[in-house]
Amino acid sequence: MADLYQASRSGPFILAGPCAIESREIALETAEFLAGVADRLGLPLVYKSSFDKANRTSVTSFRGPGMGEGLRILSEVKAATGLPVVTDIHHPEQAAPVAEVADVIQIPAFLCRQTDLLVAAAATGRVVNIKKGQFLAPWDMKNVVDKVRASGNDRIWLTERGSTYGYNNLVVDMRSIPQMRAFGVPVVMDATHSVQLPGGLGGASGGQREYVPVLASAAVAAGADGVFMEVHPDPDKALCDGPNSLPLSQVESLLVRLKGLWELNRA
């Protein structure tokens, strides 16, 4: 992708990969598979995976390999596949070193109002993908966008990932898609975290991956510019967010459906 942000403004795109970096082997296997699918379908795809999942349910939950090893693996993914990559940051001081590898800096939903984190991400000049907090209305994200723009960076994506609905449950209001697009930024639908059941397994989060195609399709029909999906070669053995991750075997058929919906929307 010559200019990732301009490409995202002119056509649909995908962010996909395992929740956390589990190993070099799984990262490369998944990235090579996704690169092949993206090439066959002609869809821009950004490989996503986290070097640290800092908001896991339990203190014993797997978090990832850490920043140093995680960035090394992401660099290898880029070299092997040519895919751009996106990963999360949790602290302002992580922004600059992560930007040396990542094409997109992602702000986790629980941290979307953290001004210092947003300013540091903006200063890298990278695309900044900000997850909408489960506790915020879509129009509240205008203040978040303004923080990044005021810091000199207009390369912003906003990601819908559901809103807290009672206990251990999320719901998606599809009106949020056009409401956030009205800020003049591309909007992404996180179709896998939105089917998460936070803390629903007691010591871990549950999920309902059977609804991922439903939410992804509805969001594209509502005008979403991109779709975010956690995928894994064997979700039932994934070390993070397996219950709401898609198996690789289901990815291409879903993207074929989404591509058709995007084409209908833009006809």
From TrEMBL:
<comment type="pathway">
    <text>Bacterial outer membrane biogenesis; lipopolysaccharide biosynthesis.</text>
</comment>
<comment type="similarity">
    <text>Belongs to the KdsA family.</text>
</comment>
<keyword id="KW-0808">Transferase</keyword>
<dbReference type="InterPro" id="IPR013785">
    <property type="entry name" value="Aldolase_TIM"/>
</dbReference>
<comment type="pathway">
    <text>Carbohydrate biosynthesis; 3-deoxy-D-manno-octulosonate biosynthesis; 3-deoxy-D-manno-octulosonate from D-ribulose 5-phosphate: step 2/3.</text>
</comment>
<dbReference type="InterPro" id="IPR006218">
    <property type="entry name" value="DAHP1/KDSA"/>
</dbReference>
<dbReference type="Pfam" id="PF00793">
    <property type="entry name" value="DAHP_synth_1"/>
</dbReference>
<dbReference type="InterPro" id="IPR006269">
    <property type="entry name" value="KDO8P_synthase"/>
</dbReference>
<keyword id="KW-0963">Cytoplasm</keyword>
<keyword id="KW-0448">Lipopolysaccharide biosynthesis</keyword>
<feature type="domain" description="DAHP synthetase I/KDSA">
    <location>
        <begin position="13"/>
        <end position="258"/>
    </location>
</feature>
<protein>
    <recommendedName>
        <fullName>2-dehydro-3-deoxyphosphooctonate aldolase</fullName>
        <ecNumber>2.5.1.55</ecNumber>
    </recommendedName>
</protein>
